[in-house]
């Protein structure tokens, strides 16, 4: 049993070691974060970020992140990394967000952008691949967005996913797998999962696209069986020396075997299945079918609106390995979540104590005031 556990642990370590980390940001080097993150100047009224761990935290340095600082503002900031494609790979997006101000209306989500994003002019109209994270506004909107870009449109997950609404730091994780399944985790716990095909209502779009014939299909239908059979001719054969083209016609190499007409392929022409097979080799056509694969991911950003500022974003991670993301989450948020709540509880008790002292002092002041008033009245009465 011990040997089996050791072997399993070794496999897990190997998987983590083989993980590809495309982007990781913990803001552990002070103000140098400004060299990596670019504030958009598209609008002079955009709100500004600062590095802060907030009023309460689990670790003053490790819990520092990008904090919104101005009320009723739009925010736009981004960081670039080496472009990559998640084609055929798992994509994991993870980060922490803390609405210390007890969010009343505003976003806490992130966006993944193409590598050609103009960071200086980034705004709400900048095209993105994925939008993920919490959004809160009043009593009605308290959800986790998962929006994917497909066929030049943005598509939201049709399943409602509730976000956290308290003032503590929470860990949000999105996993997109190459088998077209997904999973959303909050604080390391799975809160939603399923099929990207169906939970985004994209199946009908796929079928709609696949049912459209190409412009040259009518021309393709005229291709005769002889053209198809050329693929089965004996390439090693040579024209006989006594072959007379004028008398015998054009020479043709002998067939190695009769070509198999499968999947409805008829001798008089090529069936559509053949066209589909040929087209599936074309990457431009394949992208029409890739619901969660993006060829040129190269930037991550915060583009959002907040009525009341104070949100802190931290522990950003983009990787292809679910186990690495889990370990990273435990090493960051997992280590500081407990102490953060303890500090908040201590501060709350201290606030209660001060409030009581203020109330008591106010009562004492009122009592002394009444006593002095009564004393003056009594003296006047004696006179």
Q: What report would you give on this structure?
A:
By secondary structure, this protein is of the alpha+beta class. Helix content is 30%, strand content 28%. The protein is built from ten helices and 16 strands. The strands form two sheets. Strands 1, 3, 4, 6, 12, 13, 14 and 16 form an eight-stranded antiparallel sheet that branches. Strands 2, 5, 7, 8, 9, 10, 11 and 15 form an eight-stranded antiparallel sheet that branches. A hairpin with a 2-residue loop joins strand 13 (181-186) and strand 14 (189-195). The longest helix has 50 residues, at 333-382. The protein is elongated. Mean pLDDT is 81; it is low at 209-213, 220-230 and 258-289.
List the helices and strands and how they pair.
Elements: H1 2-17, E1 21-25, E2 37-39, E3 49-52, E4 65-68, E5 73-84, E6 91-99, E7 105-107, E8 110-114, E9 130-137, E10 141-150, E11 153-156, E12 169-176, E13 181-186, E14 189-195, H2 196-199, H3 203-210, H4 217-221, H5 225-229, H6 245-248, H7 272-279, H8 283-286, E15 297-306, E16 311-319, H9 322-331, H10 333-382
Antiparallel strand pairs: 1-16, 2-5, 3-4, 4-16, 5-15, 6-12, 6-16, 7-9, 8-9, 8-15, 9-10, 10-11, 12-13, 13-14
Summarize the structure.
This protein has 383 residues and is an alpha+beta fold. It is built from 10 helices and 16 strands.
């Amino acid at each position: 049993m011990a040997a089996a556990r050791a072997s399993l642990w070794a496999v897990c370590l190997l998987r983590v070691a083989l993980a590809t980390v495309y982007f990781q940001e913990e803001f552990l080097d002070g103000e140098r974060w400004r060299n990596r993150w670019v504030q958009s100047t598209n609008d002079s009224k955009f709100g500004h970020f600062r590095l802060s761990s907030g009023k309460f935290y689990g670790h003053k340095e490790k819990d520092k992140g990008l904090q919104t600082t101005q009320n009723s503002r739009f925010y736009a900031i981004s960081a670039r990394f080496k472009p990559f494609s998640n084609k055929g790979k798992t994509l994991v997006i993870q980060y922490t967000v803390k609405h210390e101000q007890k969010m009343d209306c505003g976003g806490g989500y992130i966006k993944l952008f193409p590598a050609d994003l103009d960071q200086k002019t980034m705004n709400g109209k900048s095209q993105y691949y994925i939008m993920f994270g919490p959004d809160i506004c009043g009593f009605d909107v308290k959800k986790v967005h998962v929006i994917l870009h497909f066929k030049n449109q943005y598509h939201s997950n049709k399943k409602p996913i509730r976000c956290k609404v308290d003032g503590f730091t929470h860990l949000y994780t999105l996993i997109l797998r190459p088998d077209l399944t997904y999973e959303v985790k909050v604080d390391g716990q799975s809160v939603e999962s399923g099929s990207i095909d169906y939970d985004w209502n994209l199946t009908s779009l796929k079928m709609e696209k696949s049912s459209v014939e190409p412009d040259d299909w009518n021309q393709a239908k005229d291709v005769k069986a002889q053209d198809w059979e050329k693929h089965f001719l004996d390439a090693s054969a040579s024209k006989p020396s006594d072959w007379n083209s004028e008398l015998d016609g054009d020479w043709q190499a002998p067939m190695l075997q009769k070509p198999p007409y499968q999947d409805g392929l008829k001798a008089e022409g090529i069936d559509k299945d053949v066209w589909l097979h040929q087209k599936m080799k074309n990457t431009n056509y394949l992208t029409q079918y890739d619901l969660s694969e993006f060829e040129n991911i190269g930037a991550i950003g915060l583009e959002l609106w907040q009525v009341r500022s104070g949100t802190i974003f931290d522990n950003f991670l983009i990787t292809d390995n679910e186990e690495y993301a889990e370990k990273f989450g435990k090493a960051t948020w997992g280590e500081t979540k407990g102490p953060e709540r303890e500090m908040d509880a201590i501060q709350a008790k201290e606030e209660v104590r001060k409030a009581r002292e203020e109330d008591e002092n106010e009562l004492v002041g009122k009592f002394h005031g009444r006593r002095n008033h009564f004393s003056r009245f009594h003296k006047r009465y004696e006179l």
